[in-house]
Write a structure and sequence with these properties.
Layout (H helix, E strand, L loop, with lengths): L1 H17 L25 E2 L27 E7 L6 E6 L4 E5 L4 H13 L7 E7 L1 E2 L17 E9 L3 E5 L12 H12 L10 E6 L5 E5 L15 H4 L3 H6 L3 E4 L3 E4 L13 H8 L8 E2 H11 L4 H10 L4 H19 L2
Helix pairs in contact: 2-8, 3-7, 7-9, 8-9
Length: 341
Amino acid sequence: MYLKRKIVVLFSAALIAVVPGPGAVKKHHAGKEPAVESTEAKPGILWREPTDIASRNLFYGAGGEKDAPHTTYKFVKEDLEGSNPKFTVEDENGVKWKVKLGEEARPEVAASRFVWAVGYFTNEDYFVKDLRVENMPTLHRGRKFVAADGSFPNVRLKRELKHEKKIGTWKWSNDPFYGSRQYNGLRVMMALINNWDLKDENNAIYEEKDQPERLFMISDLGSSFGTSGPDWPHAKAKGNLRSYEHSKFIARTKPEFVDFAEPSRPSYHWFLNPPEYFRRRGLMWIGRDIPRTDAKWMGNLLGQLSPDQIRDAFRAAGFKPNEVEGFAAVVQNRIAALKAL
């Protein structure tokens, strides 16, 4: 009883500290500051029209079979940023790869396939069932993911392109594409895959050498294919078929707009961290009030994917055969719901 009272007191105090007073709240589309601080004059691009959706290879994704990892690796450095254990390795051809361990490896690979399939930009992500690294030191994070023989099971490898450089992040509430069909389509895609971790730091801007444009993308898609919002334990919230099957997709339809259930309200476990709870609640608008015509447009793009292509996205992520069928069935039902709007 004492613990419950303490939680309520802490939560109430945080509410007063976190929630701004009258007149201090800005609408999410009213910002005037630039989305990224850069001296470059290159225009940004969020989406490129895909003319080959029906023939895109969702098993290999954006990098294709030619860039797929299939070699030996040596350790370069550990990455202590973010919430997931990561480190960089280099293959025998001098190509560097960012290794992500843990529960996000599988859903991130699958999610990247769908986002790329309909014209958005993604990293070149691949799933590796058993990774062996030479000269591997003891990691500060992720030791529990190391197998008895020193290998790393079930990891995501992200290819680092030499001609590409991350120059900043972009904000959902203040970016050059706000209100466009392509922007709204990306919001629909996040609902389709149940990617609830839509904080701005997961959005990246890349520049490619000798290219006239800056690429805007979501660079972290790992919190997908689970619950429709931040839940605990994370094993339920990411890459969990049962959670994905039982999550709601379309919350409400209106004459001109549609509300998606993702991102949903954080679970009560987040009450123990009130600032984060309210930050998560503040992301719920991303899935709300999306024009029905834009949602249907995205459904028609996704509708060009065959059942085998959809299954390939989950096969690429190393899911078991029954999981592949289960996830694919949910995605196909969601696409049908979008097309019926």
